[in-house]
Amino acid sequence: MANPLQIAEASSQFTQQLTAELAGNSLELPSFPDIALRVRKALGNADLAIDDVVRMVSAEPSLSVRLLQLANSVAVNPAGQRVVSLRMAIARIGFNLARSATIAFAMSQMRRAEAWQGLEKQFRALWEDSAHLAATSHAVGKRARGVNADLALFAGMLHAVGKLFVLTRLSRFPVLMDNPAVCADLERIWHAQVARSILTRWEVGADIVAAAADFESAAQPRAGQADLRDVLFAARYIGSLPQTAPAPDPEIFAKPPFQRLGLDPALCGEVLGASATEIASLRAALLD
């Protein structure tokens, strides 16, 4: 077991190295599949033809399967009309949901990379957490006012990006990895700044970057309409409630994000109840 001095020295080295990387303004998630980066960038172009996306995605069968699973999920396909072609799947879900599925696919590939052997448990936990947040955010977005549910799901998946990068850098310091509490503190301190750097480099919209990097800031009073930060803030709370006999804290509905979204106990109950199947189907489609 490392002593406090060793932990302090390792933390200092970690901070210096990460600060230098951020200053370089060229952060990328290590082991992130090239095909995912290409597809994600292409899907950001609203004028892109579906056939062009189909050709690009077809080069990666595992990603094609992920898109088909999403297109056949209850949340996207409540009528249960089976989607069997990739073109139909992309037309059904749209580019925003396709981007979310691409990020989910890339995260699953990352955790299988040889470079991260021994980190499978941590990768899996981050991946599952982001998928649950994304699915719940989609359910909230569909029922709240003034927000795009598909973009909320995308922001929820991207919430793991900064944390994943920090984890890859922490793995260079066994002294830190042996101290979960220290790792958690460093992740909390750095993940938002790292996420902003990576997602800005990816040319993700500013509203998505703000939500994915730091949706906790939505708790602060501010003027204006609801945005994606509010959705993720509310989704995190709602998703933390037990599925059986949930009892939301009445005071939560007075908080700014719930007020801006118009979420009251009845709508919260609807997200927890009527959307339970939707959330489960989205999580299943995003995970593997």
What do these coordinates show?
This protein has helices at residues 4-24, 34-43, 50-57, 61-71, 86-110, 120-143, 149-158, 160-170, 174-177, 180-201, 206-214, 228-240, 256-261, 265-273, 276-286. The protein has 288 residues and is mainly alpha-helical. It has one domain (4-286): Hypothetical protein af1432. The longest helix is centred in the middle third of the chain and has 25 residues, at 86-110. The model has no long low-confidence stretch (mean pLDDT 89).
Q: Between the first and last Cα atoms, what is the distance in angstroms?
A: 35 Å
The CATH superfamily is identified as Hypothetical protein af1432
What's the total count of β strands?
Answer: 0
How do the SSEs run, as a string of H and E?
A: HHHHHHHHHHHHHHH
Principal-axes geometry comes out as globular
Segments where pLDDT lies below 50 for 5+ residues?
none
- Seen as an oligomer or otherwise, the chain set is single chain
Structural class: mainly alpha
